[in-house]
Amino acid sequence: MNPTYLKSNLLIGLKSKKNQLLIILLVLFIIFSLFIVEKQKIGDGAKSWENYGQSLQANANYFDSEMLKRPTYKSTYDNLNKQSQELASLQNSQVFVDPVQYLTSYRNLLNTMQAGYHNHYAGAKTLNVPSQFFIKQELNKTDYLIKHKIPIFMNNESSATYLIYILR
């Protein structure tokens, strides 16, 4: 198509009041949909696990050989490494869309987090760990889903999932 014809046809189309209204509505719809996606906090679960993993790594790197000679610090260090392992399993199940493995890994991670409270995460001063109450709530929820075989929705091919990466 010749560019001059395209330009003249666009100018003719833009003179119509209906077309102007439709363009304005389309732009408003796009802006509104971006706010809805932001309000729903789509993808915040993945971001929060990434932040928690970084917090685990930073605290595990804090321990040195002298600290690991003490049993309370050694148990905290082992707990942090176990949490890193469970977190990696959880993230793998998210990537490969395996809801059963996700729930199992999540339950194991929560149990490991809860076990860390026995020595109050000695030596891990900056760890961003959830409260015991929150962990117990999540454990009860996860155990209920596993016990009754209720599937969770996981879809890494939906447009909302890809929108997370686009909006970054």
Helix count, DSSP H or I runs of 4 or more residues: 7
Gross morphology: elongated
Q: What is the terminal separation in angstroms? A: 36 Å
Total DSSP E strands: 0
Order of helices and strands: HHHHHHH
Radius of gyration: 25 Å
Give the biggest sheet.
Answer: none
Helix content: over 70%
Q: Which structural class fits the helix and strand makeup?
A: mainly alpha
**Multimerization status:** single chain
Please give a structural write-up:
By secondary structure, the chain is an all-alpha fold. 73% of the residues lie in helices and 0% in strands. It has seven helices and no strands. 13% of the residues are buried.
Question: What's the SSE blueprint?
Answer:
Blueprint: H1 3-14, H2 17-40, H3 44-62, H4 71-95, H5 99-116, H6 132-147, H7 159-167
Quick summary:
The protein has helices spanning 3-14, 17-40, 44-62, 71-95, 99-116, 132-147, 159-167.
Which short descriptors sum up this protein?
168 residues, mainly alpha, elongated, 7 helices
